[in-house]
Design brief:
Structural class: alpha+beta
Order of helices and strands: HEEEEEEEE
Number of strands: 8
Strand order of the largest sheet: 3-2-1-5
Helix content: 25-40%
Radius of gyration: 23 Å
Strand content: 25-35%
Shape: elongated
Largest sheet: 4 strands, antiparallel
Number of helices: 1
């Protein structure tokens, strides 16, 4: 008696793997998009903390700020268009950020020039980030 797989058994295993793969692909795509969105939210919150910390410390000779240029969130010293120092975080093409305007923080006090209401959204969810006049950040 020979041991091994028959052609029918092999085709059955291949078809089961194909069915399982087809059913799990949408879940994996949604999971990866959710992770990417949370990563952008965390990068924005971290950027605000960095700007506030540098402003409080009086680091550099000028004002620290945060802005969005296309698909990049920029922490900068000087101006957004031509910074003396800059740290850029890119946003994935499937993530949309709105409401993040060019915001300068006051040197020594670490408070932003204006309050902000930022929305980070994708095709499956959205998050709101608010920054009040004292620089307190709230994520919902």
């Amino acid at each position: 008696m020979k041991k091994g797989l028959t052609l029918i058994e092999l085709l059955l295993v291949i078809s089961l793997i194909t069915i399982v793969g087809t059913l799990t692909t949408p879940f994996a795509g949604a999971f990866l998009l959710r992770v990417q969105q949370e990563s952008v939210v965390n990068a924005i919150v971290t950027a605000f903390h960095l700007v506030q910390m540098n402003s409080l410390d009086g680091k550099g000779s000028g004002a620290w700020g945060i802005c969005q240029t296309g698909q990049i969130i920029r922490v900068y010293l000087g101006s957004c268009a031509s910074p003396t120092q800059a740290i850029d975080n890119s946003i994935g093409s499937s993530i949309n950020v709105s409401g993040l305007s060019n915001t300068i923080y006051t040197r020594g006090t670490g408070s932003p020039a204006s309050s902000l209401n930022i929305t980070v959204s994708s095709s499956i969810a959205s998050n709101n980030i608010t920054v009040n006049s004292l620089g307190v950040i709230n994520v919902q």
